[in-house]
Amino acid sequence: GAVVSQHPSRVICKSGTSVKIECRSLDFQATTMFWYRQFPKKSLMLMATSNEGSKATYEQGVEKDKFLINHASLTLSTLTVTSAHPEDSSFYICSARTSSGTAQETQYFGPGTRLLVL
Amino acid sequence: RKEVEQDPGPFNVPEGATVAFNCTYSNSASQSFFWYRQDCRKEPKLLMSVYSSGNEDGRFTAQLNRASQYISLLIRDSKLSDSATYLCVVGQAAGNKLTFGGGTRVLVKP
């Protein structure tokens, strides 16, 4: 099946630093990638939808200047958490959808990145 | 009201027993429905899509009731390995976004 990778799998950083998370579709082209955040014992919350070659669409309440998303190619999207603070500590998960996707198309999830901001 | 609601559980299930739980969704225009499984500290993995006529995959049976806006999942002959959080996921036509429920935790015990 389709494979999506994320790097790094976990990161610990100091407050105020920026952290970049990569999401790659390994065996298919993903015109659309999604970034989610999951706090402990909570559901996945969609942060933004990223379409290749265009600006990401952010969900309400998600600061686009804090969570920078770049989707420069059909196999790579990056999420940069700028000036991270302890409240940004979370499990960040990306997913990718194939170019032929419809409403019925499923998304393939990456393994997630666990961010801890000290 | 949350867009997708689930009983958080946990459902404590004896090994070999049957367990069933529902999920309700608020958007009547929702077009696609899925059950995902998430193990502790892991990413969600697709368990099965849910079709209008209901569908079965081995020990797992999913049903969709559009009139009442709920979907259900039934697990027969529960295995210890079925212990996980089951996420109800609803797809919207606009932007093909998925909305996740909070998950139902299932614990299968010997």
Output the keywords.
heterodimer; A: 118 residues; mainly beta; B: 110 residues; five-stranded antiparallel beta sheet; 54% strand
Structural features, described:
The complex is a heterodimer of chains A (118) and B (110). Chain A is an all-beta fold and 118 residues long. Helix content of chain A is 0%, strand content 53%. Chain A is built from no helices and eleven strands. In chain A, strands 2, 4, 5, 6, 9, 10 and 11 form a seven-stranded mixed β-sheet that branches. The model of chain A has no long low-confidence stretch (mean pLDDT 89). Chain B has 110 residues and is mostly beta strands. Chain B is built from no helices and eleven strands. Chain B has strands spanning 4-6, 11-14, 19-25, 32-38, 45-50, 55-57, 60-65, 70-75, 84-91, 98-100, 104-109. In chain B, strand 9 (84-91) and strand 10 (98-100) form a beta hairpin. The mean pLDDT of chain B is 93.
Brief write-up:
The complex is a heterodimer of chains A (118) and B (110). Chain A has 118 residues and is an all-beta fold. Chain A is built from no helices and 11 strands.
Reconstruct the topology from this structure:
The complex is a heterodimer of chains A (118) and B (110).
Chain A: E1 4-7, E2 10-13, E3 19-25, E4 30-38, E5 45-51, E6 57-58, E7 67-73, E8 76-81, E9 90-98, E10 108-109, E11 113-117
Parallel strand pairs in A: 2-11
Antiparallel strand pairs in A: 1-3, 3-8, 4-5, 4-9, 5-6, 7-8, 9-10, 9-11
Chain B: E1 4-6, E2 11-14, E3 19-25, E4 32-38, E5 45-50, E6 55-57, E7 60-65, E8 70-75, E9 84-91, E10 98-100, E11 104-109
Parallel strand pairs in B: 2-11
Antiparallel strand pairs in B: 1-3, 3-8, 4-5, 4-9, 6-7, 7-8, 9-10, 9-11
